[in-house]
Write a structure and sequence with these properties.
The complex is a heterodimer of chains A (about 110) and B (about 110).
Chain A (H helix, E strand, L loop, with lengths): L4 E3 L2 E5 L4 E6 L5 E9 L6 E6 L5 E4 L2 E6 L4 E6 L8 E9 L12 E6 L1
Parallel strand pairs in A: 2-10
Antiparallel strand pairs in A: 1-3, 3-8, 4-5, 4-9, 6-7, 7-8, 9-10
Chain B lengths: L4 E3 L2 E4 L5 E6 L6 E7 L5 E8 L2 E4 L8 E4 L6 E5 L8 E8 L7 E2 L3 E5 L1
Parallel strand pairs in B: 2-11
Antiparallel strand pairs in B: 1-3, 3-8, 4-5, 4-9, 5-6, 7-8, 9-10, 9-11
Chain lengths: ~110, ~110
């Protein structure tokens, strides 16, 4: 069973604040890391798929970094807006595994106007 | 290109009845995943299928639950003799495989009365 930890569990920030949260995963047999954004009453949407150690990906004000040697990824949001309020989920893929995606419990972000 | 289609959106069953949840993947996607969202919890992996094959069902309860993805037609998640604890939102996702991001349906909310 893959042990995926996301922290913090929840986060409240003010509009305009920048914030970041963490996804920790087993570093052995790493293949890829997925990040998803899940708004209330909607379905999860893919943000990034990261594969290379040191990789950094960006989508608008959201970016993510990856450290496969130590088994963690950071998600950053610059200048948070109320529409960024969502639960952010990560899921690692293991090399040689079945390609199933097991998600962490997520970080629930609330951006107050 | 239509997205992942799940039906029904809402399903009400009495205890002891059967529930059938359908998922049509995106065109060209041969990998289907089923997840369950219980109240106050995240997305729990249930089963991962490719056409006509169950690849990983490690998240499926041992009894009453089954899934299939036939050569023709949608993937079906079947819950026999439902109990109140089965009440949850069930999400289906599809991908073309090889670590590509998942595309999620809008979910089926099952209520067992």
């Amino acid at each position: 069973i893959l042990n995926v930890e996301q922290s913090p569990q929840s986060l409240h920030v003010q509009e305009g604040d920048s914030t970041n949260f963490t996804c920790s995963f087993p570093s052995s047999n790493f293949y890829a890391l997925h990040w998803y954004r899940w708004e209330t009453a909607k379905s999860p949407e893919a943000l990034f798929v990261m594969t290379l150690n040191g990789d950094e990906k960006k989508k608008g004000r959201i970016s993510a970094t990856l450290n496969t040697k130590e088994g963690y990824s950071y998600l950053y949001i610059k200048g948070s807006q109320p529409e960024d309020s969502a639960t952010y989920l990560c899921a690692p893929l293991v090399d040689g595994g079945s390609e199933k995606l097991v998600f962490g419990k997520g970080t629930k972000l609330t951006v107050n106007p | 290109n239509a997205g992942v289609m799940q039906n029904p959106r809402h399903l009400v069953r009495r205890r002891g009845q059967e529930a059938r949840l359908r998922c049509s993947p995106m065109k060209g996607h041969s990998h289907v995943y089923w997840y369950r969202q219980l109240p106050e919890e995240g997305l729990k992996f249930m089963v991962y299928l490719q056409k006509e094959n169950i690849i990983d069902e490690s998240g499926m309860p041992k009894e009453r639950f089954s899934a299939e993805f036939p050569k023709e037609g949608p993937s079906i998640l079947r819950i026999q003799q439902v109990v109140r604890g089965d009440s949850a939102a069930y999400f289906c996702a599809s991908s073309p495989g090889d670590g590509s991001p998942l595309h999620f349906g809008n979910g089926t909310r099952l209520t067992v009365t």
